[in-house]
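Folds abound. Consider this:
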Amino acid sequence: MLLAIDAGNSNVTLGLYREDSLIAEWRLLTDPSATFEKYSAHILRLFSDAALKLEDVNGISIASVVPSLNDTLRNIGERQFQVKPLFIDHQTDTGLKIKYESPASLGVDRIVDAFAAITKYGAPCVVIDFGTATTFNVVNAQREFLGGAIAPGLVISAEALFNRTAQLPRVEIAKPEKVIGSSTTLSMQSGIYYGYAGLVDGLLERIIKELDDKPRVIATGGLAKLVAGASRLIEKIDSTLTLEGLRLLHIRSHRNDSGATR
């Protein structure tokens, strides 16, 4: 089995694959200062609760945007699972030509998302990942990663509104029935939800205008289902796109190592 680990700024998402089937998915809170012992105990409990065996894992693929966690994740692979993990970075052979000015500064989750999207849906494409930040990742018809846009995430935007106003309450981030809110709560929900959908579609319109061909538009990340409901341009929601990209890159890496494909 393969364990895919997506270490993001808010959550560490783990996906366990048997062949090409995702049989378990878990989320842990990201703690950059967490020790090997802490995360190891969490993982042991997750496997135990699911009646799964650590020794059945024979591959680990990791995308991390939290450098301080990398040694912990490496130790989890080598000490807990007895497996040397594959860390994806900008030098990993993905078949993408990265046109970013500084490829080393490109978040590895963006690379994994783009690779997974063109593998599953073809190029050109735009992948929107609704995480702590919302990233727009653009691949043209020649499979060149052109870059994209980074916006404050929906939760961050809402938290800024709650924290910087004296009389506005904290409200649930949800889709209101109407844009014109008849109360403070409904007005805030409208501004947060429909305002963010406007940000998404506004950026997408400008991105699509700059491309020569009409791209597929795919959304992923924890809030993808919520926001996509108000978007005119998002075509597909794929909530496990990053994990699937990690699985596919693990396969590609092993094929390359064996000399089967280059």
Q: What stands out?
A: The chain has two domains: 2-87, 97-246. The longest helix spans residues 184-210. The CA atoms of residues 60 and 144 lie 27 Å apart.
